[in-house]
Design a protein that fits this description.
By secondary structure, this protein is of the alpha+beta class. About 55% of the residues lie in helices and about 10% in strands. It contains 11 helices and 7 strands. Strand 2 and strand 3 form a beta hairpin. Helix 1 crosses helix 9, helix 4 runs antiparallel to helix 6 and helix 8 crosses helix 11. It is globular, with a radius of gyration of 20 Å. It starts with 6 loop residues before the first helix and ends with a helix. The model has no long low-confidence stretch (mean pLDDT about 90).
Amino acid sequence: MVEQHTPRSLIVTFYGAYGRSFEGPVPVAALIRLLGAAGVDAPSVRSSVSRLKRRGFLLPAHAGDGSAAYELSEEAHQLLEDGDRRIYGAPEPSPEWLVAVFSVPEQERHKRHLLRSRLARLGFGAVAPGVWIAPAHLYGETRHTLDRLHLTAYVDLFRGAHLGFAPTAEAVGRWWDLAALAKQHEEFLDLREPVLRALQSGPEPSPEEAYRGYLLALDSWRRLPYADPGLPRELLPADWPGDRAAAVFAELHARLRDRGAGFVRP
């Protein structure tokens, strides 16, 4: 299986993993060096940074020596903080669900599409047209997202239990495509388990090797906790690969992240 990493995604991943630890904005020269270690050439870094600037994720600034640099916008900080809880956290099991009920006027149907796409990206499952559901622990992140996109006027949020009539595990199988989610976990394992086995049996990686390995692993992993939003384990198939995928990422994180920081800030 060939792994795909876009320059823009790797830049976002870099800021999430290491960029926030810089004292001040990250110089463009540092971005080019650090993304170059992950296989991204300088023109691709510059064009991807420009796109992220247009989207409001990055803001132009100056480093301490006066050179060109980029810092995160306030919105980007919030996105990454929400991502930290999703990517690195283990949500507390809860019997409750978060239900989003929305109605968008036909003349604003572009907002209906935006709302559906963002709820899907947050990990919501579709119960019926205009009714979406997610584990209750996603309330805070959902509220931040709807506030940021100015969509709160169209949505009501509810928290509660599933009381019937189908068994909840059966209902979850309708609300989410569990086969597709399992396949994503398996693809991550196909790519990252061999890397972990090599680390377990081989010499300690250099700081640059650790940095590159961690950046690529995180870039692969960080989408999974959004596609699979922390569904209660008892509602999933017995052979669910998400458990093993999470364990593999956790060990890669423990082995590589801090050592890779030595290459980021030599």
